Amino acid sequence: RLQILVTPQGVCLEDSDAVALDIELPPTVTLDSVMMFTDGEPLSLTAKSSASKCTYLWSTDGSGDFTAANSATTLYKPSRKDEQNGVRLDLKVTSVTGVCGVRKQVVVLK
Predict the structure, then answer these.
(1) I want to staple 101 with a disulfide (CB 3.0 to 4.6 A). Which of 13, 17, 60, 94 is the partner?
(2) Element housing 5 (H / E)
(3) Where are the alpha helices (DSSP H) in 9-90?
C-alpha cells in the first residue's frame, strides 16, 4: 500500500490519497538441471513453482515426446537418437497474468 500525503503551501488544504499496488514477482522454479536416461524408460519431470497459478510449457531440441507438455509434471519419452546423443529439455513457466515468466533448462545425458 502506497500513501501519498500532500503538504499544503500557502492557502491550499492538506490532502492525502492511498493506492494499492500489486507487485508480481517472477515465479521461482525448482527443477533438476542435469539428468540421465535409463535405456528404454521415460524420464519423469516435475517442476515446482513458488507462484500458485502458472502455465507450463515443456519443449525439447530432441525428437522424443512429452505425455503432458502443458503440465508441471510430465514424462518425456526419448527417441533412440535422444538416448544415444543426449538432449536438452526446456521449461517455460509463466504467471497466469502473463506478466512474469521464467525459463529453466534440463540437460539429459546419454
Answers:
(1) 94
(2) strand 2-6
(3) 80-85
